Amino acid sequence: MNRKDLLTVVDEFDSPVYVYDAAIIEAQYKRLNKAFKKVKQLKINYAVKALSNISVLKLLSAMGSGMDTVSIQEVRLAMEAGVSPDKIIYTPNGVSMEEIEKAAGLGVQINIDNLSILEQFGTKHPKVPVCIRINPHVMAGGNTNISVGHIDSKFGISIHQMPHLKRIVENTKMNINGIHMHTGSDILDIDVFLYASEILFEAAKNFHNLEFIDFGSGFKVPYKEGDIETNIEELGEKLSTRFNSFCKEYGKELTLAFEPGKFLVSESGKFLVKVNVVKQTTSTVFAQVDSGFNHLIRPMLYGSQHEIENISQPKGRERFYSVVGYICETDTFANNRRIAEISEGDILSFSNAGAYCFSMASNYNSRYRPAEVLWYKNKAHLIRKRENFEDIARNQISIEL
Predict the structure, then answer these.
(1) Verdict on whether the full-model pTM lies above 0.90
(2) Is 368 helix (H, G, I), strand (E, B) or coil?
(3) Is residue 376 a known part of a binding site?
(4) Residues of 96-114 as b/e, b for ≥16 C-beta within 10 angstroms?
(5) By its UniProt entry, which CDD domains does this protein fall under (predicted)?
């Protein structure tokens, strides 16, 4: 997608609007496959929570991707997209036994991350294959909200609880067919990830009927020019060699699984907004846009940086702007950012808007959630309509007073 394509999308579908470039998603999927080409059996399960639009799920499924889900609703979305249950893994956290049984009933791969549910499920359903999520107590992630492998994390069964875990498996005679970890998002140090992998390999030796080992994901993508990112090619080379060696030790060819979300879709996304007001105060120039953290909360929640470009006047003289939204409290997208000179009515484009952006959108201030568009084969395809007032009011019940 080029600048003119993006402006065409706004002309056709108005703003604010999310646009995803299918070619970038496909390129990232191929890049990950190529990095692990030395592994005989590789399985990539796209993390649905990153961007759950059914058309995107269809696109990834057509490339050969499975789906990583964290809720029964995501399982159903994946199936609605035509993904067969045997290509879906379900990895919830803190959900009820009833929801896990519903997912199992649909025929998807179950991944359990606590001893209580493991014992309950194994007692009732010993023949259903189960993957176990291990917490290796290895810290990864660029923000505490997305670092999930540390010792105080709510995710996974502690590696130090292996004796308890083995006791449950032996007593229930349940079928453990996979073992899994996820250290957190924004992996910066490959050696730390490889160290966590060794812990997972050691844990895997306790189970004799494994079919796969799932290393999670969390690969960091660049958010600006020159930004650090996970060296996926180096990781592929090193982990593939170690994985193949482990398979020989184990005596069986296992599947190496990953569940990337951000890596596949983040860079594909642009979020397009219109400038309503350029406001000069005593110390700041604000560009106030027709959106807010109800549509893009990551800068406020994580402190994430999204590159912002004025695609209406890209060659204008650069000035410093604070880009803010229309929500009735502080919602700052960028502070004192150098952007080509902005006029009211200009269209701004936020980069890296493919992952955890629309999926975290809300109706705060009773605002409508924006439309979504897939740029596929040089054409814009509407894949979600912009909400309207009827959508806001639909499930509300007005009582007689």
Answers:
(1) yes
(2) coil
(3) no
(4) eeeebbbbbeeebbbbbbb
(5) PLPDE_III_DapDC (cd06828)
Residue reference for tokens 């394509």 = 5
Are the beta carbons of 9 and 383 closer than 8 angstroms? no
The residues with which 212 forms a beta bridge, in sequence order, are 178, 255
How are the residues of the chain apportioned to helix, strand and coil, as percentages rounded to the nearest 5?
Answer: 35, 25, 40
Q: Is 356 annotated as a binding residue?
A: yes
What are 324-335's pLDDT values in tens digits? Answer: 999 999 899 999
C-beta of residue 24 within 8 angstroms of C-beta of residue 267: yes
**How does DSSP assign 263-293, residue by residue?**
HHHGGGEEEEEEEEEEEE-SS-EEEEES--T
Token output for 202: 């050691």
In sequence order, the 6+-apart residues with CB closer than 8 A to the CB of 341 are 310, 313, 316, 317, 318, 319
Confirm whether 11 is domain-assigned: no
Q: Is the pLDDT of residue 94 over 50?
A: yes
Looking up tokens 């899994």, which residue turns up? 180
Whether 247 and 299 share a structural domain? no
pLDDT tens-digit map of 337-368: 999 999 999 999 999 999 999 999 999 999 99
344 known member of a binding site: no
328 a catalytic residue? yes
Q: How far apart are CA 218 and CA 140, in angstroms?
A: 8
CA separation for the pair 401, 83 (Å, rounded) = 48
Tell me the C-alpha distance between 391 and 372, whole Å.
16
* Catalytic-labelled residue, pool 131, 247, 328, 357: 328
Q: Is 329 annotated as a binding residue?
A: yes
pLDDT tens-digit profile of 8-18?
999 999 999 99
Q: Per-residue DSSP letters for 217-258? A: --B---SSTT-----HHHHHHHHHHHHHHHHHHHTS-PEEEE
Half-sphere exposure in the Cβ direction for 122 (13 Å, CA):
25
Tokens of 318: 């650069």
* Percent over 90 (pLDDT), the chain: 87
The residue out of 265, 291, 322 marking a domain boundary is 265
- How many residues would you count in the chain? 401
- Domain of 99 in residue numbering reads as 22-265
CA distance 198 to 246: 10
Does residue 105 share a domain with residue 174? yes
